[in-house]
Amino acid sequence: MNDTTTPTVESGDTTQQASDAGTAAFGATATESGTAGASQTAAEIKERYSEILGQINQTLGQVDWTQMGRIGKAVGILLVVIVAQILIKGVLDTINLLPIVPGLLELLGLVIVGQWSWKNLTTSEKRSAVVNRLQNLRSEYLG
């Protein structure tokens, strides 16, 4: 059994008042615990944030910064290539909207590749000259 007794209210008005008082007391308790929970959560977030920053600083301290010039150049080249591909795609999509132009451009491309091939790949001397030019370009740019 329970030792506490609940007060019995006989009038309808006083019953409503007792109910309102209980609700108000519960609301105050919930608000106080909510505020305490929010401040506790904020403290946990600050603690976790400082822990993460410490780990980031530790990781950055282990990085060999002398290699960053090479990595920076590689990342820059990669970004330029990505932007160029996006721009080229936009131009080609715009050209493809025109009715007859895509077919004519494909035909033009085939004609130019055929002419270049005929000019540079028909004899073994011309083929070896193309291979030498490619090797010179490779050694010039890649070392």
Question: What does this protein structure show overall?
Answer:
It is a single chain. The chain has helices spanning 12-61, 68-96, 101-121, 124-142. The protein is mainly alpha-helical and 143 residues long. The longest helix has 50 residues, at 12-61. The radius of gyration is 39 Å and the shape is elongated.
Shape type: elongated
Based on CA atoms alone, the radius of gyration comes out at: 39 Å
Beta strand %:
under 5%
- Helicity level: over 70%
Give the helix/strand class.
mainly alpha
- Separate helix tally: 4
Average pLDDT, all residues: 79
Low-confidence stretches: 14-30
Along the chain, the helix and strand elements come as HHHH
Distance between the termini: 93 Å
Give the total of beta strands.
0
The main β sheet shows up as: none
List keywords for this structure.
single chain; 143 residues; mainly alpha; 4 helices
Topology record:
Blueprint: H1 12-61, H2 68-96, H3 101-121, H4 124-142
Question: Could you provide a short overview of the structure?
Answer:
With 143 residues, the protein is mainly alpha-helical. It contains four helices and no strands.
